């Protein structure tokens, strides 16, 4: 439909062609979309006929027919117009198309632009001393128009960047206003439902899930495929709250480069699952990152258990948590009493692992099934 409209407008005095060219120049690439890579050197192919036209004009300039005005005006107009069109097209193509092509590079764009400007400036200087051109002012103004187009084309990418930045700023302001409004109304209502209903109730579980989804939409944005450890554990906790009557709070402090695909994340997820499955209620997850390593504490407020009651053939915590951390070069420990259970996981950075001396550590182990 859009193409048909452009074709129809092209029949109305060429308005469709001009409108299409304007849209092509000023419409930015979609976000996340890469510019195509072209093997054919289009800019050089456009510059070649411009150079040929320039040689023809120089040949006329050195002949006897130059000052006498024997050169036909219509032929001169065609040659000059074609030279200007090809030189201007080469400069515009290098600036607007090849500039975004990583296979070309900035040197290619600069070379084409300089050659186009030199050709157009030289053509303008020659036409000033040509009697045929003096009789037609439009013929002299053609190179000037081409120069203006090539030089001003460098401003179009800047205009695109400024427009994109303005759109992003407006969206961010609208998002902040919406977040403030929802925080004052919806999020506070969901928090009130959770406090009144209790952590183990069905209403609190649903309210907690909706609160997580709303906060993620308002504040988190698009998370990378391989997210960091706090983001991964928050998502995992939100999924567990849909299946178990628990409330899981994940808090992080400090800077950590630990990724969600690591062994520490897998061991932490297993510990959180054990707490949700067997303790229920409220579960606290605290992540602390430092230059030496990362610590994760998972604490529940269950009834606790006796280590002697754990059968020797139950290897869940022994292998999925303690053993996994030991194989990864870290450590894991479990402390349980009548006030609840706490799992402490720690992994050091590679530089500190090389400097540290391994020492045997006793870890109390649990298994909730």
TrEMBL record:
Residues 347-369 are annotated as: Disordered. The lineage of its organism: Bacteria, Bacillati, Actinomycetota, Actinomycetes, Micrococcales. GO terms for molecular function: kinase activity. It comes from Microbacterium oxydans. Keywords: Kinase, Membrane, Transferase, Transmembrane, Transmembrane helix, Two-component regulatory system. PANTHER family: NITRATE/NITRITE SENSOR PROTEIN NARX-RELATED, OXYGEN SENSOR HISTIDINE KINASE NREB. The chain crosses the membrane at residues 6-30, 42-63, 75-98, 110-130, 136-156. This is Histidine kinase. Residues 352-369 have a biased composition (Basic and acidic residues). GO terms for biological process: phosphorelay signal transduction system. SUPFAM superfamilies: ATPase domain of HSP90 chaperone/DNA topoisomerase II/histidine kinase.
